[in-house]
Write a structure and sequence with these properties.
CATH superfamily of the largest domain: MoaB/Mog-like domain
Shape: elongated
CATH topology of the largest domain: Molybdenum Cofactor Biosythetic Enzyme, Chain A
Strand order of the largest sheet: 8-5-7-6-10-9
Number of helices: 7
Oligomer: single chain
Helix content: 10-25%
Strand content: 25-35%
CATH architecture of the largest domain: 3-Layer(aba) Sandwich
Radius of gyration: 31 Å
């Protein structure tokens, strides 16, 4: 067996970052920036008001309360073509440009307009700049806004739009093919015949690929036929950036997937010192990363979390490809036996009294998918006897 870190290092060494592409800003959410963004203009582009109220000369409020003449109204989007003179005020709406002559805004709650709307009483003294957003207060021209490697979130996209950007250069989402093989696998609701099971891994893995930020491609359920499997793998590596299979990766296995991958790719067939998900295959077929994950459904999901997800995120340009663990407190004993492996127990996590707490999600067998579905973390249990109530363990919080 080899350590987890060694196996993951082999995977990451074969998962190169994809070449940058230019996409519309509207399609860039969650992608990693592949260029630096320098502001070509100011945000906001002109002084404007942060409040509904009246634009005034601050000096005219020094002896408040005082009545001022209303000489106009400015709404957001209007040109500031009304000048404010001494003893005057302009009714102004949030976001509207500051009119010439005014240096402050007094919010409407501190004013009282006359019944005919010709004058307003300002009831408080306000300083220059009160409720005024200065031009460039957020971003100035020439400012380095975002550096290469930033994952673009909603706020980033908003800033890009504020700067007038319509396209942005990013690392693209990899297209990731997922295939299942086996004559024992069936789809749909038809009654199972003896020896048949329904294919769950493909849908699970396609969903995990999408949750990781990549684009899932369903290669389908492939029969146990060498030529058919070879054709499916050839098509996948030609049309996808990565391929995921499940099953047939144990040392004793010899199925057609293993035979085809061994013949066409530079594959490593590994036994990793973890439980579940000890068997792992990884390699390149025509420079396309291929992940061979175990066939048991829980093992497949854990293997994806520990190996495929980091590899795909590295292809997408993310700097942090492995989820950082947190420390949790066991609410009940979680016992295991020494076997030379690190165990990843499926647990349910709560947060209370300033700390994470965890307990078993149910059955810990590698075939017990229901417990995995209800879990929201993996408890990392080093080789030994596990943890007892009140003891701590590292947790990998999963989506």
């Amino acid at each position: 067996m080899i350590p987890l870190e060694e196996a993951r290092a082999r995977v990451l060494a074969g998962c190169r970052r994809l070449p940058p592409v230019t996409v519309p800003v509207a399609e860039a959410l969650g992608l990693v920036l592949a260029e630096t963004i320098v502001a070509g203009e100011a945000i906001p582009p002109f002084p404007n008001t942060a409040m509904d109220g009246f634009a005034v000369r601050s000096a005219d409020t020094a002896d408040a309360p005082r009545r001022l003449d209303i000489v106009g109204t400015l709404a957001a989007g209007a040109a500031p073509d009304i000048e404010v003179g001494a003893g005057q005020a302009v009714r102004i709406m949030t976001g509207a440009p500051m009119p010439p002559g005014a240096d402050a805004v007094i919010m409407v709650e501190l004013t009282r307009a006359s019944d005919d709307g010709s004058t307003v009483e300002v009831q408080a003294t306000v300083p220059a700049g009160n409720h005024v957003r200065a031009a460039g207060e957020d971003v100035t021209p020439g400012q380095l806004v975002f550096e290469t490697g930033v994952e673009l979130g909603p706020g980033h996209l908003g800033v890009l739009c504020s700067l007038g950007a319509t396209d942005v250069t990013v690392v693209p989402r990899p297209r990731v093919g997922v295939m299942s093989t086996g004559d024992e696998l069936v789809e749909g609701a038809a009654p199972l015949r003896p020896g048949q099971i329904r294919d769950s891994n493909r849908r699970t893995l396609l969903s995990l690929v999408e949750r990781a930020g990549a684009t899932p491609v369903d290669i389908g359920l492939i029969r146990d036929d060498e030529d058919t499997i070879r054709s499916a793998i050839d098509t996948a590596v030609e049309t996808c950036d990565a391929l995921i299979t499940s099953g047939g990766v144990s040392m004793g296995d010899f199925d057609y997937v293993k035979k085809v991958l061994s013949a066409t790719g530079d594959m490593a067939w590994m036994q990793v010192a973890i439980r579940p998900a000890k068997p792992l295959a990884f390699g390149l077929v025509a420079d396309t990363p291929v992940f061979g994950l175990p066939g048991n459904p829980v093992s497949s999901m854990v293997s994806f979390e520990l190996f495929a997800r980091p590899g795909l995120r590295q292809m997408m340009g993310h700097a942090d490809v492995v989820r950082p663990p947190v420390v949790g407190i066991a609410d009940a004993d979680l016992i295991r036996r020494p076997d030379g492996k690190t165990h990843f127990a499926r647990v349910v996590v709560t947060y209370r009294d300033g700390a994470f707490h965890f307990s078993s999600a149910g059955g810990q067998g590698s075939h017990q998918l229901f417990a995995m579905a209800t879990a929201d973390a993996l408890a990392v249990l080093p080789d030994g006897d596990g943890v007892k109530t009140g003891e701590t363990a590292e947790l990998v919080l999963v989506d």
